[in-house]
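We were asked to recover a plausible sequence for a given structure. The inputs and outputs are reproduced exactly as logged, with field labels preserved.

PROBLEM: sequence recovery
POSITIONS: 446
GIVEN STRUCTURE:
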């Protein structure tokens, strides 16, 4: 089995990079080829660090030129992907097409150079197992969003490396705007290259999280209908065919303790297939229960075709980007045109927040309160509504919204601070202690 090492990214911390270089030097016999691919100035730094070591390493320094000048783009995630793709595609092009690839970011943190060597040895042992030789390995995954796996270290089969290198940038136009982040694009390419024809892949699965409660939305129900379980089953089938969890492979070859020593902080919900699959099964159960209630309440009557739903979502994405750009007059005009769409309440939230930011406090508060009363719980809505209600001395309404805000987003310190500040400035007596929710969030984190 050919094994190659690809290092990419900016050298943000020279000390961390020197630890990697010492590890590479110690493990150099494990690799058929070693490539460092980055921007011109970081290639120069890498050359300097490698040349300072007594033991020479044969390394191919790949100048990926300069990052594309996209500083004005709002979505920083797509900028991050394009930068990564530029360096990875340049670097993979220097490797043999039948080589397995370990991609390490230059800012990756290892406790010591020996920890790096142990990682490489463990990867070799795992890929030596026949059942894992056709699968890329992942360290961690989110069970909330498909195709969201840890991308700090990529462990790629030859075919997967080709899939990433051959991502057709024009295919990105078929993704929802909010799916344009590196992990999603990289692993959707690895798991099912050309997935832009797949509705499950194109869908914005993070949309429902905006309200902090992770309930499925009208948008989800209109897209997937009663077939959500089929979409998930297909996703799990394709994932298991192309990807394996590194920890599962370590268990299989008898080195799980070593895996746990190397990866003490992963930061993802799932590190093994059983947990990953089980959580997606829970997703199916939750979706089915919520979808049944939606149907009972006449939701099916509001269903639209897939093309109509995606068109409405793209329009909403544009309005949200206008809001993020501070074009509040435009947001108000476009939001009024969005009434009657699947995203009507979201439009009302943005319209109310825009009115507030333009100084129309009373009008904004009235609109946001009505939207809150209709069941919408968006963060922008409650943030500004709290201030408007406090200024209007609407103590009862203030407490209702403030309690909802800090309980829904208890992990967000800024919301607790905002509620306390609004109450203090306007002399509102709170009938609850917001710090209780802060304490609960702290317990959940630990």
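RECOVERED SEQUENCE:
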């Amino acid at each position: 089995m050919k094994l190659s090492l690809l290092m990419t990214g900016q050298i943000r911390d020279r000390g961390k990079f020197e630890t990697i270089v010492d590890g590479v030097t110690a493990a150099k016999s494990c690799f058929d080829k070693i490539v460092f691919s980055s921007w011109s100035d970081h290639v120069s730094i890498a050359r300097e660090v490698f040349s300072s070591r007594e033991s020479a390493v044969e390394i191919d320094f790949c100048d990926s030129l300069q990052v594309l000048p996209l500083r004005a783009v709002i979505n920083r995630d797509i900028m991050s992907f394009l930068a990564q793709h530029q360096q990875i595609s340049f670097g993979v092009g220097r490797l043999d097409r039948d080589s397995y690839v370990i991609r390490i970011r230059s800012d990756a943190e290892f406790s010591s150079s020996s920890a790096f060597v142990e990682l490489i040895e463990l990867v070799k042992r795992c890929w030596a197992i026949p059942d894992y030789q056709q699968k890329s390995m992942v360290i961690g995954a989110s069970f909330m969003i498909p195709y969201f796996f840890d991308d700090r270290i990529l462990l790629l089969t030859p075919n997967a490396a080709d899939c990433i290198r051959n991502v057709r940038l024009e295919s990105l136009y078929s993704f929802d705007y909010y799916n344009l982040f590196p992990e999603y694009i990289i692993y959707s390419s690895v798991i099912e290259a050309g997935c832009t024809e797949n509705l499950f892949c194109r869908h914005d699965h993070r949309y429902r999280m905006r309200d902090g409660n992770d309930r499925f939305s009208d948008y989800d129900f209109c897209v997937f209908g009663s077939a959500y379980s089929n979409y998930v089953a297909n996703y799990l089938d394709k994932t298991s065919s192309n990807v394996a969890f590194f920890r599962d492979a370590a268990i299989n070859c008898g080195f799980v303790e070593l895996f746990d020593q190397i990866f003490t902080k992963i930061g993802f919900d799932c590190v093994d297939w059983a947990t990953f699959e089980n959580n997606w099964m829970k997703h199916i159960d939750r979706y089915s229960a919520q979808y049944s209630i939606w149907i009972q309440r006449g939701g099916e009557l509001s269903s639209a075709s897939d093309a109509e739903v995606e068109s409405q979502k793209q329009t909403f994405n544009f309005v949200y980007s206008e809001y993020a750009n501070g074009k509040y007059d435009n947001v108000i005009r476009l939001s009024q045109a969005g009434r009657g769409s699947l995203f009507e309440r979201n439009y009302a939230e943005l319209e109310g927040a825009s009115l507030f930011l333009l100084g129309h406090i009373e009008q904004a508060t009235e609109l946001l309160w009505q939207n809150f009363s209709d069941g919408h719980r968006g963060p922008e809505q409650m943030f500004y509504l709290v201030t408007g209600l406090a200024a209007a001395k609407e103590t009862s309404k203030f407490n209702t919204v403030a309690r909802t805000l800090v309980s829904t987003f208890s992990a967000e310190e800024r919301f607790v601070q905002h509620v306390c500040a609004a109450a203090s400035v306007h002399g509102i007596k709170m009938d609850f202690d917001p710090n209780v929710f802060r304490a609960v969030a702290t317990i959940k984190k630990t």
